[in-house]
Design brief:
Layout (H helix, E strand, L loop, with lengths): L1 H29 L1 H18 L4 H4 L2 H4 L11 H9 L5 H9 L9 H4 L3 E4 L12 H11 L4 E3 L2 E3 L3 H7 L3 E3 L5 E3 L2 E8 L5 E2 L12 H7 L24 H11 L3 H13 L5 H10 L5 H22 L4 E6 L4 E6 L10 E4 L13 E4 L1
Parallel strand pairs: 6-8
Antiparallel strand pairs: 1-9, 2-3, 4-5, 5-6, 7-11, 8-9, 10-11
Helix pairs in contact: 1-2, 2-6, 8-9, 11-12, 12-13
């Protein structure tokens, strides 16, 4: 009885196996996309057995001069992104066997001042199609790392992995053909904050000004103000300044000066002097915009002390980018905006947010 059951079970398994093989063969005959996927899957398995797995081919000895993928914790993420990228076996295998000797980024186009679509600087090479590279970059876009206590955000890792001419910079984001570049990437909306850490900012002594105004405990503002024109339920810095003017003539101006010189210790003096001089005459939208410009200038001045002179903005939604010199930022405001400035942000400080439109 047991032997009979064994043979019946074996026959059933053989029948199922045969049906499955017939199904696969029929799909391969009628569907080219299935053919590509099955061939790539089988060939990758053969390569792996032969010691040609992605991990084998991406060893540091084989990929010189490219070494960014050897950063701790990155190789596994890179291989998963590769495996998840659609394409035929030629795309996959050629990418691996030539990795480190080929750049899939047109660095000149990437850093040309102005707006670009990704298609202007992402490129294929030989049997590696542009479509494969574009999808791989998308898969890598949200990869984030901390290297030498410096966070690397969206878009940066993919650029470093797709070109031996783009490297993780020692002081900040990326070194592109020898030029230090500050990179800010975003997935859909709401870009990166312009800060290195909270040491970018000082701390104003507003209590001394409140004491001069002889404010009651109920009148003293809670925490630091907002710099956002449309914020509700929060004190805007201009409102605080005008309230102080009702207590003592020009005390509001003293408050504005202490707020901006105290926080933005690297800010542009001319921009700060302008907001101090005109705080009571500017409308809410203008003074909020001017405050964000001061926040930008503070970060730009910090970058320049580290020999960074270029900005690169990247956005996954719409596949677009913007490159510009840190001093020329106002020439490109049709492509990006500054926003969300909050002096009371304990995590980011008064770091302005930069995002592509």
């Amino acid at each position: 009885m047991l032997l009979h059951e064994f043979f019946n079970k074996t026959k059933i398994n053989e029948d199922v196996q045969s049906d499955r093989i017939d199904f696969i063969v029929n799909q391969i005959r009628t569907n080219p996309e299935v053919t590509k996927k099955v061939y790539r899957l089988v060939q990758n398995e053969v390569d792996s057995i032969a010691g040609k797995s992605p991990k084998d081919l991406l060893s540091a000895e084989l990929t010189k001069p490219e070494q960014d993928h050897t950063v701790k914790g990155l190789l596994g993420t890179f291989i998963r992104a590769l495996n998840d990228t659609p394409g035929d076996y030629d795309d996959f295998s050629t990418f691996l066997t030539t990795y480190g000797q080929v750049s899939y980024i047109n660095e000149a186009e990437l850093m040309k001042p102005g707006y670009s679509g990704w298609g202007a600087w992402l490129k294929g090479n030989g049997k590696v199609s542009e479509g494969f590279i574009t999808q791989l970059y998308k898969n890598l876009f949200d990869t984030k790392l901390n290297i030498n206590k410096s966070n690397r955000g969206p878009g940066e890792v993919g650029l470093a992995l797709l070109s031996p001419n783009i490297k993780f910079a020692s002081l900040g984001d990326l070194n592109i053909n020898g030029v230090e570049v500050e990179v800010k990437g975003e997935i859909s909306s709401g870009g990166g904050r312009l800060k290195n850490n909270l040491k970018d900012f000082g701390k104003p002594n507003l209590d001394a000004i409140y004491a001069k105004a002889e404010l009651t405990p109920e009148e003293i503002p809670v925490g630091f103000p907002t710099g956002n024109a449309g914020a509700r339920g929060r004190d805007h810095f201009q409102d605080v300044a005008k309230m102080l003017d009702t207590k003592q003539n020009m005390l509001g101006q003293e408050y504005i000066k202490e707020l901006f010189t105290g926080f933005f210790i690297n800010g542009d003096p001319e921009l700060i002097n302008n907001i101090v001089a005109n705080y009571d005459r500017l409308d809410r939208a203008t003074i909020s915009s001017d405050a964000m410009k001061i926040a930008y200038s503070s970060y730009a001045n910090i970058l320049k002390t580290k020999n960074f002179s270029k900005f690169l903005l990247l956005k996954l939604q719409g596949e677009k980018s913007l490159a510009f010199d840190v001093n020329d930022w106002q020439d490109y405001l049709e492509y990006f905006k500054l926003g969300s400035l909050d002096f009371n942000d304990t995590q980011n400080g008064p770091a302005v947010q930069i995002s592509m439109l």
